């Protein structure tokens, strides 16, 4: 078994529907074939809701685009040969869009998420006949012994935890010496990025019950997206500027081949994603680089300077 107790890293023994720690006797239920190391409903429930609503939206197999794969290659510099036959951990898998790519490339994937999005990821990969393990757990206290994985990655997650640097240390801990780490889609803390309408409204929106907030965001996107699209197409204004003026995510012209229905659905998904998560804790590049150094990650390569996009290898 690859799991251990997240509290004290004790070995686990398996009964029919539980994993039990041999050291502290903590019991973790297995529900729907998924070990649950955290309460099923928790601070990340808005993501559980989000990924149930948009379970397939950004999966390459459903959108018929290669956007998820392109983000893995372009944002982390990972290719099929890096993961084929390797044991790979996806930290914060959401609906499983990146796990899907790694599994198709022949990686032996373990997908972990804090929320019940993990059930959507399992459904999605199983429907495609892809093999992976799924676990509901906490990036801040990963339920794996040291040096378990050949490769570990996380995309768009660390900022949504209470302590992103601790999550990064945990990723380094469970990576084996010589193993590969990839980071992409971490919010960067810069003055420019802090000037965003979401930071004005989040103190209110994060207190609104998830389903009510979703209705509000839906109404807002219905109103603002057409104006935003007009500003992009006719006035030729930049994506970042239009996003800030209209406070709606608009990928028109930014994601090649995105069709009209995808523009709407992605706008709804990502605008909700700005306003609903409990945490929005960006990091600086220096903080990430320092944490990688502490985690004994060598040969750190900045894959793309636009944002936080790194790959590196753990010292042997
Ligand atoms: C913006 S979504 C990104 C999902 C996926 N990586 C993607 O890019 O499509 C952030 C994910 O992080 C998960 N998450 C938040 N806090 C977490 C934690 N402490 N441990 C593990 N996952 C967490 C959420 O449940 C959510 O699914
Ligand atoms: Zn224990």
Task: Explain what the structure shows.
With 316 residues, the chain is of the alpha/beta class. The protein has two domains: 35-188 and 282-314, 3-Layer(aba) Sandwich (Rossmann fold), CATH 3.40.50; 191-275, no CATH class. It is built from 13 helices and eleven strands. It has helices at 45-53, 60-63, 67-76, 80-83, 97-104, 117-127, 164-174, 191-194, 197-205, 210-233, 239-246, 260-275, 285-294, and strands at residues 12-14, 18-21, 27-31, 34-35, 87-91, 108-113, 132-136, 149-155, 175-186, 297-302, 308-314. A seven-stranded mixed beta sheet has the order 7-6-5-8-9-11-10, sandwiched between helices. Strand 2 (18-21) and strand 3 form a beta hairpin. Helix 7 (164-174) runs parallel beside helix 13, helix 10 (210-233) packs across helix 11 (239-246) and helix 10 packs across helix 12 (260-275). The longest helix has 24 residues, at 210-233. The protein is globular, with a radius of gyration of 19 Å. The mean pLDDT is 95. S-adenosylmethionine (SAM) is lined by residues 44, 47, 51, 58, 92-94, 97-98, 113-115, 117, 138-140, 155-157, 160-161, 273.
């Amino acid at each position: 078994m690859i799991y251990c107790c997240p509290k004290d890293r004790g070995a686990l023994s398996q009964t029919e529907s539980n994993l039990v720690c041999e050291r502290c006797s903590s019991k973790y239920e297995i529900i729907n074939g998924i070990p649950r190391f955290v309460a099923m409903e928790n601070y990340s429930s808005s993501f559980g809701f989000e990924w149930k609503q948009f379970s397939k939206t950004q999966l390459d197999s459903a959108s018929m685009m290669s956007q998820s794969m392109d983000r893995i290659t372009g944002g982390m510099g990972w290719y099929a040969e890096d993961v084929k036959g390797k044991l790979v951990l996806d930290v914060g898998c959401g609906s499983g869009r990146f796990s899907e790519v790694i599994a198709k490339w022949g990686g032996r994937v373990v997908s972990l998420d804090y929320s019940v999005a993990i059930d959507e990821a399992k459904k999605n990969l199983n429907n495609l006949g892809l093999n992976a393990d799924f676990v509901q757990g906490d990036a801040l206290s990963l339920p794996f012994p040291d040096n378990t994985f050949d490769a570990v990655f996380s995309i768009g997650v660390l900022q949504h935890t209470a302590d992103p640097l601790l999550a990064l240390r945990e990723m380094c801990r469970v990576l084996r010496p010589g193993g590969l780490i990839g980071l992409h889609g971490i919010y960067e803390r810069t003055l420019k990025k802090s000037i965003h309408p979401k930071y004005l409204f989040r103190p209110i929106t994060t207190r609104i019950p998830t389903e009510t907030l979703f209705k509000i965001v839906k109404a807002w996107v219905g109103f603002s997206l057409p104006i935003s699209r007009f500003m992009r197409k006719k006035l030729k204004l930049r994506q970042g500027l239009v996003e800030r003026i209209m406070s709606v995510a608009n990928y028109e012209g930014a994601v090649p081949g995105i069709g009209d229905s995808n523009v709407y659905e992605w706008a709804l998904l990502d605008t909700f994603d700005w306003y609903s998560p409990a945490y929005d804790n960006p990091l600086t590049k220096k903080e990430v680089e320092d944490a990688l150094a502490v985690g004994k990650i060598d040969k750190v390569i900045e894959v793309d300077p636009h944002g936080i996009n790194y790959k590196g290898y753990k010292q042997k």
